[in-house]
Amino acid sequence: MKTMPNDLLIARLQSHLALDESERNGLAGLPCQMRSMPGRNLALAGKLSENHVHMIIEGYACRYRDLADGRRQILSLLMPGDVIDLRQFVLGGMQPAVATLSVATLAAIPNASLFRLLEDHPRITTALWSTTLVEESISREWLVSIGKRSAIERMAHLLCETFLRLAAVGRTEGARFPLPLTQSELADALGLSTVHVNRTLQELRKSGQIAFQAGTVEIFDFNALAAQAMFSPDYLHLREMPLIGAVPA
Amino acid sequence: MKTMPNDLLIARLQSHLALDESERNGLAGLPCQMRSMPGRNLALAGKLSENHVHMIIEGYACRYRDLADGRRQILSLLMPGDVIDLRQFVLGGMQPAVATLSVATLAAIPNASLFRLLEDHPRITTALWSTTLVEESISREWLVSIGKRSAIERMAHLLCETFLRLAAVGRTEGARFPLPLTQSELADALGLSTVHVNRTLQELRKSGQIAFQAGTVEIFDFNALAAQAMFSPDYLHLREMPLIGAVPA
DNA sequence: CGCGGATTTGACACCTCTCAATGATGGTGG
DNA sequence: CCACCATCATTGAGAGGTGTCAAATCCGCG
Asked: Any transmembrane segments, and where (chains A, B) (predicted)?
């Protein structure tokens, strides 16, 4: 039942852009070495292999920024199928710090192999780039969330977003998905205080919109939640919407 | 005293990466057509020439996102030297809406000419790319601001940032620079209400940190303002810091 | 001169934060 | 197997920052 790392990459790329069989085969042939990060809250700086590109296979990570006085802002959530260091691969340069948010396993793909593949398959280049564009797009949506949405809207929005991102790579089960984040980590992502995250979650639970326990979220009525959050999925640039709601028991 | 459009582009690129003379000459030879946007709050969608890349010469614009219920979030400020549609030029794809925030003049450079130039000068490609990376970096910093900084810190931070960005392209005069934004536009950028922007500005004025009238800001003590905002300029990736404070009368 | 948008001011509500204490939970060592 | 400890979740009380509503003033512009 476990997808192999290459399949995950294929699924992720295809969620944005359809690939043909030769392209899929090329991706499937990519050598990749598994790498397991044993714990949560591990900074990845220096822990990634030089000359490799890394994708998250299992677990969560984040990009973040620390302020001088200890406040932290999580800039983006990285989840299975996300490539961490694609931008450096092509452009080099600066990127914010990355840390795990759970035990996680990464796949490391040698730059050289990837380069070779991209020479033969320009559309894979496009597909890879589109993942970075989607990441930017998500980042802008977070700006909207934090700037303009209320606490409960922000939380609802994040849950909708995460659900669809995971669904796109087959990591949801019906309306449930893993979200092993601490309330304080959610707070740092949403620009809220820990206490308020707690109250916000309670409100969503009490109103019957979600369940959230033991690192697993269940969304009872996605459309209602999306409406409350003013969530519209365009910015995720998914080729097709996962089937929502109509999940037979 | 007015810099020509090509000089502005050169200045902007050199603010991040030094160029040699042949590269500067190449840029100086780029044909570009001036385009003036007569008013504020003009959506640029459809108003830009196809197959051209546009740079702001004078005035301000912004990327923004509107929510269903009328709330608006300004995602980034575009100012002289900023290229609006560089990403589409290379990657195509989706970008948020752009609107002017003042009367503005743009320069339109034909894609073809730019392509030709880049073939001869790979470092110009790098320099251009780095402007998009800086834009992303600024965007992340905004996320930190809105997520973690107080109203007064946010405002101070935006003023510091804007000052340095303008200084990098020679658009400041001493400690003064143009900022012809409405308080309500500042509010949309900072994730605050108009009224609170007003009070925040008053506080900064009363504490003697800035003057702000008739669309012009003056920063009396940049370092103090930066300290209050927890502003550290690294994220702007400027090659050299403009001289601050020590501006002889 | 009068109009419309922008700024300013006031009063008030309320969302969210902070501080603090109390319960859960899970892992660890005795 | 249980006591213990750290971390996380939850709850309460209160303060304070920020938003909303509304009105007044200012200002540029036609």
From this structure: none
